[in-house]
Amino acid sequence: MSARCQVTGAQPGFGNNKPWSKKRTRRRFDPNIQKKRYWVPSLGRTVTLTLSARGIKTIDRRGIDAVCHDLIAKGVKI
């Protein structure tokens, strides 16, 4: 499963571990990605989306129909 949100586009960030010894090593900041199933009345079926926590809040705020309409307009396979 790729670490990318289908709604917000959140993806891993990169940076450094910086311990007391100041020896920096590369690290990866992963977003909180989850698979979530929603019933979409306009499509008449369920869709499974790969979402970050902020993407789930966006769907709660705007509604699944509006978000799915935007995803289909962008050409995302649902």
Automatic annotation (TrEMBL):
Cellular component terms (Gene Ontology)? ribonucleoprotein complex; ribosome
A Pfam family hit: Ribosomal_L28
GO molecular function: any one?
Answer: structural constituent of ribosome
Does the record carry Coiled coil as a key word? no
What are the boundaries of the region Disordered? 1-26
Q: Per the UniProt entry, what is one GO biological process?
A: translation
Q: Which UniProt keywords apply?
A: Ribonucleoprotein, Ribosomal protein
Give the superkingdom in one word. Bacteria
Q: Does the keyword Cytoplasm apply?
A: no
Q: Which InterPro entries match?
A: Ribosomal_bL28 (IPR026569), Ribosomal_bL28/bL31-like_sf (IPR034704), Ribosomal_bL28_bact-type (IPR001383), Ribosomal_bL28_sf (IPR037147)
**Similarity comment: family membership:** Belongs to the bacterial ribosomal protein bL28 family.
Q: What NCBIfam families has UniProt attached to this entry? A: L28
Q: What is this protein called?
A: Large ribosomal subunit protein bL28
Species annotation: Propioniferax innocua
